[in-house]
Amino acid sequence: MLKTILSISGRPGLFRLVNRGKGMLIVEDIATGKRTPAYARDKVISLGDISIYTDEGDTPLGLVLDTVKEKNEGKAVDIKALGKDEDIREYFAEILPEYDRERVYTTDIKKLLSWYNLLVSAGITDFKPEEQPEEDAAAEQPEA
Predict the structure, then answer these.
(1) Sheet arrangement for strand 35-39
(2) Which residues contact 135 (CB under 8 A, 6 or more apart)?
């Protein structure tokens, strides 16, 4: 599901990929439902391609969002109630204890939590990374 949810640099919010055109994407704002084009010059990234730095490597964003959902019982996170930067980092350490404290900034954590809130308010709560059924099925079948 996160593969079709996009972040576009310079635009607030998150967008759902609706269709592809020549040299552009048709995207829909998940909060308002308004459709707009995203051109090749726009920096577009799929949430499914984002990961969080950890001490052992990287953790996919979907797994982190799923942990946030479990911790908050599927409800939105009140970012302002968390308080100062240290409190936000402490809260995030409860979600992902092994996150790299030098490379993950407080602004990154706030953005992740605001994305989570946007997704939950839009009714998107399936954050698990998608499996690759074609590849898995091909790998499981014995060769003749």
Answers:
(1) 35-39, 24-29, 15-21, 5-8, 44-46
(2) none
Tell me the residue type at 44: V
Tell whether pTM > 0.90.
no
Question: What's the confidence (pLDDT) of residue 21?
Answer: 85
Closest CA to 3 of 20, 15, 21: 15
CA distances from 16 to 20, 38, 123 (A): 12, 11, 13
CA atoms within 13 A on the CB side of 100: 12
Q: Under DSSP, is residue 119 helix (H, G, I), strand (E, B) or coil?
A: helix
> Token digits for 96?
């992902």
49-107 per-position pLDDT tens digit: 999 999 988 999 999 999 999 998 888 888 888 889 999 999 999 999 999 999 999 99
Cα of first residue to Cα of last residue in the chain, in angstroms, is 34
18, 26 Cβ separation under 8 angstroms: yes
**Phi, psi dihedral angles at 9 (to 5 degrees):** -60, 135
